[in-house]
């Protein structure tokens, strides 16, 4: 007859000092229990045979998910770093921030993921006290730099799009390098308590052996976690919401303006006379060109296609900005909320979140390391061209060209450059002359690109 033990929840948690039911289900202890044992907790019967199967499934799922996110983060950010370094034409102000973001996300993949998953699976931090301090320090620095880089990108885009004339004076690569250096220095300073107060804490296992936990032992841990919650989540999130919200409003006004202009042209029958005044080849000479009906129709179609392309690009940028803000909160809100909860009620948080739940919450935050390269770089047409050229061994600099609205609108990584080109350099309109050849006629830009 099987051995049946009727325990309270507290008795069950006392199997190991400081460990919870979820931890036992997610650690090796549950794999060494007799398959005939049955535990009854508050009327709920747990067959340890089923617990063993759940352990294997839990291990497999966690290892698989962490491996996928690690590989995507590592190789994705490595490709971004290589492409931005080898292609001089991509060394813009925004791409400088993206390079810093890719480096910090690479650090997240290297220092956060393995040193979170392995101790969680083993129920023991096996890397020693020195690695406990070092990994905790680099974890904090990488997360901090990644967050500050996202804020810097948001502010740079807002300045370039909403205040282009004022931003030209300071939007230089040298200024970007100073901002990047400041983000790293600030991150290094605010994370100094980590190597000082992270300690390797010993605990006793059910088999009488000893394990170790890497824990933060600050005198005022609540103050530290609230401080990090404010400067690494609330303030960055607020800045990104405001900056991208204002950018979206500016682009939306541009969409409305172009739609109104299109309606006005259709209702007023603009260009019905087919006459254009153009600067001749000689200095003051002026020549008149009369459009044929066929030429006028071609011009209308070209103008309509260009307008539609700009509208689509701007709508795409707005959607992308919304995705950036939403992904930031999805990735980081759970872990910052949990850390704050643990700081003020450690026992309750440990009982409900230890083991698999906290492992998946950490994984969700690490997902940002593979999402950022996709959103900010791989969705940009110019970057994809540079990546293909690099992979083919074509390390020659790419020819300088203006991005089209569609290219710039995909991610906005080079949005500031396109915007300045569109604002300070008038668009060119092709007008057929009397010989049906294409000539250029300059007109003021209608959009924000």
Automatic annotation (TrEMBL):
<feature type="transmembrane region" description="Helical">
    <location>
        <begin position="98"/>
        <end position="122"/>
    </location>
</feature>
<feature type="transmembrane region" description="Helical">
    <location>
        <begin position="356"/>
        <end position="378"/>
    </location>
</feature>
<dbReference type="GO" id="GO:0008188">
    <property type="term" value="F:neuropeptide receptor activity"/>
</dbReference>
<keyword id="KW-0325">Glycoprotein</keyword>
<keyword id="KW-0812">Transmembrane</keyword>
<dbReference type="GO" id="GO:0015054">
    <property type="term" value="F:gastrin receptor activity"/>
</dbReference>
<keyword id="KW-1015">Disulfide bond</keyword>
<dbReference type="GO" id="GO:0005886">
    <property type="term" value="C:plasma membrane"/>
</dbReference>
<feature type="transmembrane region" description="Helical">
    <location>
        <begin position="63"/>
        <end position="86"/>
    </location>
</feature>
<protein>
    <recommendedName>
        <fullName>Gastrin/cholecystokinin type B receptor</fullName>
    </recommendedName>
</protein>
<keyword id="KW-1133">Transmembrane helix</keyword>
<keyword id="KW-0472">Membrane</keyword>
<comment type="function">
    <text>Receptor for gastrin and cholecystokinin. The CCK-B receptors occur throughout the central nervous system where they modulate anxiety, analgesia, arousal, and neuroleptic activity. This receptor mediates its action by association with G proteins that activate a phosphatidylinositol-calcium second messenger system.</text>
</comment>
<dbReference type="InterPro" id="IPR000276">
    <property type="entry name" value="GPCR_Rhodpsn"/>
</dbReference>
<feature type="transmembrane region" description="Helical">
    <location>
        <begin position="317"/>
        <end position="336"/>
    </location>
</feature>
<comment type="similarity">
    <text>Belongs to the G-protein coupled receptor 1 family.</text>
</comment>
<keyword id="KW-0564">Palmitate</keyword>
<dbReference type="InterPro" id="IPR000314">
    <property type="entry name" value="Gastrin_rcpt"/>
</dbReference>
<dbReference type="Pfam" id="PF00001">
    <property type="entry name" value="7tm_1"/>
</dbReference>
<feature type="transmembrane region" description="Helical">
    <location>
        <begin position="223"/>
        <end position="247"/>
    </location>
</feature>
<keyword id="KW-0675">Receptor</keyword>
<feature type="transmembrane region" description="Helical">
    <location>
        <begin position="176"/>
        <end position="203"/>
    </location>
</feature>
<feature type="domain" description="G-protein coupled receptors family 1 profile">
    <location>
        <begin position="76"/>
        <end position="376"/>
    </location>
</feature>
<keyword id="KW-1003">Cell membrane</keyword>
<keyword id="KW-0449">Lipoprotein</keyword>
<dbReference type="InterPro" id="IPR009126">
    <property type="entry name" value="Cholcskin_rcpt"/>
</dbReference>
<keyword id="KW-0297">G-protein coupled receptor</keyword>
<keyword id="KW-0807">Transducer</keyword>
<dbReference type="InterPro" id="IPR017452">
    <property type="entry name" value="GPCR_Rhodpsn_7TM"/>
</dbReference>
<feature type="transmembrane region" description="Helical">
    <location>
        <begin position="134"/>
        <end position="155"/>
    </location>
</feature>
């Amino acid at each position: 007859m099987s051995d049946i033990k009727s325990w309270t929840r507290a008795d069950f948690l006392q199997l190991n000092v400081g460990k919870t039911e979820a931890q036992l289900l997610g650690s090796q202890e549950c794999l060494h229990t007799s398959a005939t044992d049955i535990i009854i907790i508050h009327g709920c019967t747990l067959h340890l045979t089923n617990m063993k199967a759940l352990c294997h499934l839990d291990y497999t799922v966690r290892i698989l998910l962490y491996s996928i996110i690690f590989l995507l983060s590592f190789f994705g950010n490595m490709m971004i770093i290589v492409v931005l370094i080898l292609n001089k034409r991509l060394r813009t102000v925004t791409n400088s921030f993206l390079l810093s973001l890719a480096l910090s996300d690479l650090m997240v993949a290297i220092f956060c993921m393995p040193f979170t998953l392995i101790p969680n699976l083993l129920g023991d931090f096996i890397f020693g006290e020195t690695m406990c301090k070092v990994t905790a320090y680099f974890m904090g620095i990488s997360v901090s730099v990644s967050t500050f880089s996202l804020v810097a990108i948001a502010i740079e885009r807002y300045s370039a799009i909403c205040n282009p004339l004022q931003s030209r004076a300071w939007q230089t690569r040298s200024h970007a390098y100073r901002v990047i250096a400041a983000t790293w220095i600030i991150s290094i300073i605010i994370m100094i308590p980590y190597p000082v107060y992270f300690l390797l804490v010993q605990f006793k296992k059910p088999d009488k052996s000893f394990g170790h936990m890497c824990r933060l032992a600050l005198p005022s841990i609540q103050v530290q976690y609230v401080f990090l919650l404010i400067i690494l989540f609330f303030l960055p999130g607020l800045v990104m919401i405001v900056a991208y919200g204002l950018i979206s409003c500016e682009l939306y006004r541009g969409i409305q303006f172009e739609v109104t202009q299109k309606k006005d042209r259709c209702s007023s029958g603009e260009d019905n006379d087919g006459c254009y005044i153009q600067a001749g080849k000689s200095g003051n000479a002026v020549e008149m060109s009369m459009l044929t009906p066929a030429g006028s129709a071609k011009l209308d179609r070209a103008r309509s296609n260009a307008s539609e392309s700009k509208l689509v690009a701007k709508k795409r940028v707005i959607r992308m900005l919304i995705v950036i803000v939403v992904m930031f909160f999805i990735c980081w809100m759970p872990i910052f909320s949990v850390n704050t909860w643990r700081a003020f009620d450690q026992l309750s948080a440990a009982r409900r979140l230890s083991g698999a739940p906290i492992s998946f919450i950490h994984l969700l935050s690490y997902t940002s390391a593979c999402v950022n390269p996709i959103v900010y770089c791989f969705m940009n047409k110019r970057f994809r061209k540079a990546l293909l050229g690099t992979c083919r061994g074509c390390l020659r600099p790419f020819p300088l060209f203006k991005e089209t609205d569609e290219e710039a609108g995909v991610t906005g990584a080079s949005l500031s450059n396109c915007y300045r080109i569109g604002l300070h350099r008038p668009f060119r309109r092709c007008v057929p002359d009397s010989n049906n050849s294409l000539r250029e006629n300059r007109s003021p830009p209608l959009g924000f690109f």
